[in-house]
Structure formats: structure tokens, C-alpha cells
């Protein structure tokens, strides 16, 4: 009896601790249940579509569960409810077939439109070829003829070593930082051609709302247009081997002027002359 009592006490303590977790404001702050809103034209569209479908689902749930629970409580045998004696209703069958079909078609139209938009890589302002390696990324700027590798940053790399004695919490972007990010101009339509040299990787930056497999022997394609300058972080999203967790993806979106400056630095490093300032890519991007 005593034993059972202490078990109950322990259970209650556990429940209380869990309840405290829900009430603590800090715990609430970490409860970001929805998908991030993102910083690209596509992420905005995807977020809006996602919310539209979500509220349609909420409305359906309210109607269906509402009818169910209303019936359960209202028509109880204990309250003297008597079962109906009909067994078929053609009208009802037509209605409950037609209504879901109409809802599905109504949801399919914006979804299909979104898919077509996502796949439309025509007329890009610049094209970057991304290649996944075990375990780093290569970015090749096809319009500017330079390329470079993007490795995990050296501090993350030091911390991650066995017995490094270093604390990951000291690094704000532990495993989410690289030495050379992918740099893009804000407002430009960036077309990405993606492949891999060894195994399947996947390039993923949640705030850019794009995630695409990098497959050896194939070239996949996607596009994005970043609307706000900033640094956006992601990771390889395909289990690609031992160091899969150590190939972050970082996109640095800069103003068209800063981007041009960066391009010229890269071009000089690659032994190419800098671009003229009236360049079409940047002009298009800053429009
Ligand atoms: Cu990978």
C-alpha cells in the first residue's frame, strides 16, 4: 500500500513538472510549432497556401467533430433517444460525396498553381551550380566563371572533435556555419542547378523554402528569390554518410551593390577581370 502511494506521488510530481514546463514563458517561446515564414517570394506563397489549407482542415474538423459530439451527447439512450428506422438516403450519399470532392478540387487549384510556379526556372538573373560532396558543398557561379567550396566553419569543426573539451553552447551557430557561404543578391531570381559527386545529398534552407536532392549523375533544378538581406542557415537533409551532420548550408543575401563587389573579389581571385558596374544581372536584381 505504501509502495503504491509513493508511486502515485512520483507520478503526480512528474505531471506537475510537465505542467510547469507548459506554463513557463521560456518553454512557450521555444514552441514554434508552425513552419517558418521565410524570406523568399516562394516561402511567402507556400506559407500562405499552407495556412489556407490548414484553416480548411480546421473548419472540416470543427464541422465533423462538432456533429459527432453533438450527436453523442444529444441522442443518448439514457436521455430517451430512439433510433431512426430509415436505412438509406440517396440524397445524403450524393451530398457527402460531392462536398469532399468540391473541397479537394478547391484545394488542388491553388496547390497546382504553386507547384507550377515553384518549378518555373525560366529567365533567372543568375545561375549557380551546386555540387554536394562528402562532406562539403561546391558553388559554381556559371555567369561569372568562378567556383569555391563551402566547408563547415573551423570553430564548429574544432568543437565537434572527440574530447575537444569545448562547449558547443559557446558557438552561436554550432554546426550551422560555414567558411564560405553561398552569396546571392537580394531581389534576384537565382536558378540553382544541383548535383552530387559521390552519394545523394540534399540542399535545404528552411527560410528560403527550398529543399532539393543532389543526386550523382543527375541535375536537379530549382529557383528562389530572397526578399530580405541576411544570413540564412540550413543543413544537408539526406543521410549521406558519417559526416552528414557536418555539412551546413549557409546563404548570405546581400544588396545588389555588395553582391557585385563580392563577385568582383571572387573574379579577381579566379584571375578574371572585374565586371563592369552596369552589369545586367545586378541591374535586373535591383529593379
Ligand atoms: Cu550530405
The counted number of beta strands is 10
Reported for the largest beta sheet, the result is:
5 strands, mixed
**Radius of gyration, taken over Cα atoms and rounded to an integer in Å:** 27 Å
Percentage of β-strand residues: 15-25%
Adjacency order of strands in the biggest sheet = 3-2-1-5-8
Poorly predicted regions: none
- The shape is extended
Average the pLDDT over all residues and give the rounded result.
89
Number of helices: 7
User: What is bound: which ligands?
Assistant: copper (II) ion
**Classification by helices and strands:** alpha+beta
Give the helix level as a range of percent: 40-55%
- Termini separation (Å)? 78 Å
Q: Element order, helices and strands?
A: HHHHEEEHEEEEEEEHH
Q: Can you describe what's shown?
A:
The chain is an alpha+beta fold and 287 residues long. Helix content is 41%, strand content 21%. The protein has 7 helices and 10 strands. It has a 5-stranded mixed sheet with strand order 3-2-1-5-8, with no helix packed on it. Helix 3 (41-74) runs antiparallel to helix 4 (90-119) and helix 6 (256-269) packs antiparallel against helix 7. The protein is extended and about 90 Å long. The structure holds copper (II) ion (CU). The site of copper (II) ion (CU) has 7 residues, from loops. Copper (II) ion binds next to loops.
Q: How would you summarize the topology of this molecule?
A:
Layout: H1 2-23, H2 25-29, H3 41-74, H4 90-119, E1 126-133, E2 136-141, E3 146-150, H5 154-160, E4 182-185, E5 190-196, E6 201-205, E7 210-214, E8 220-224, E9 230-236, E10 248-254, H6 256-269, H7 280-286
Parallel strand pairs: 1-5, 4-10
Antiparallel strand pairs: 1-2, 2-3, 5-8, 6-7, 6-9, 9-10
Helix pairs in contact: 3-4, 6-7
The chain binds copper (II) ion.
Amino acid at each position: 500500500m505504501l509502495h503504491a502511494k509513493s508511486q502515485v506521488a512520483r507520478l503526480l510530481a512528474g505531471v506537475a513538472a510537465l505542467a510547469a514546463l507548459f506554463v513557463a514563458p521560456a518553454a512557450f517561446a521555444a514552441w514554434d510549432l508552425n513552419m517558418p515564414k521565410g524570406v523568399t517570394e516562394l516561402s511567402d506563397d507556400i506559407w500562405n497556401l499552407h495556412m489556407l489549407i490548414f484553416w480548411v482542415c480546421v473548419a472540416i474538423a470543427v464541422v465533423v467533430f462538432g456533429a459527432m459530439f453533438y450527436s453523442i451527447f444529444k441522442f443518448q439512450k439514457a436521455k430517451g433517444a430512439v433510433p431512426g428506422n430509415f436505412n438509406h438516403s440517396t440524397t445524403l450519399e450524393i451530398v457527402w460525396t460531392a462536398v469532399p470532392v468540391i473541397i479537394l478540387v478547391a484545394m488542388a487549384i491553388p496547390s497546382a498553381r504553386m507547384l507550377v510556379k515553384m518549378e518555373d526556372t525560366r529567365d533567372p538573373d543568375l545561375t549557380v551550380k551546386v555540387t554536394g560532396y562528402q562532406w562539403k558543398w561546391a558553388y559554381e557561379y556559371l555567369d561569372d566563371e568562378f567556383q569555391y567550396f563551402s566547408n563547415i566553419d573551423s570553430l564548429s569543426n574544432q568543437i565537434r572533435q572527440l574530447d575537444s573539451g569545448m562547449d558547443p553552447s559557446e558557438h552561436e551557430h554550432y554546426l550551422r556555419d560555414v567558411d564560405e557561404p553561398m552569396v546571392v543578391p537580394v531581389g534576384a531570381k537565382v536558378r540553382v542547378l544541383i548535383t552530387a559527386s559521390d552519394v545523394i545529398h540534399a540542399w535545404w534552407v528552411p527560410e528560403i523554402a527550398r529543399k532539393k536532392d543532389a543526386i550523382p549523375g543527375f541535375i536537379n533544378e530549382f529557383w528562389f528569390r530572397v526578399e530580405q538581406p541576411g544570413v540564412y542557415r540550413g543543413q544537408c537533409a539526406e543521410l549521406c554518410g558519417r559526416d552528414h551532420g557536418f555539412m551546413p548550408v549557409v546563404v548570405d543575401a546581400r544588396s545588389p551593390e555588395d553582391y557585385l563587389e563580392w563577385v568582383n573579389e571572387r573574379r579577381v581571385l579566379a584571375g578574371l577581370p572585374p565586371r563592369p558596374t552596369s552589369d545586367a544581372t545586378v541591374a535586373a536584381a535591383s529593379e
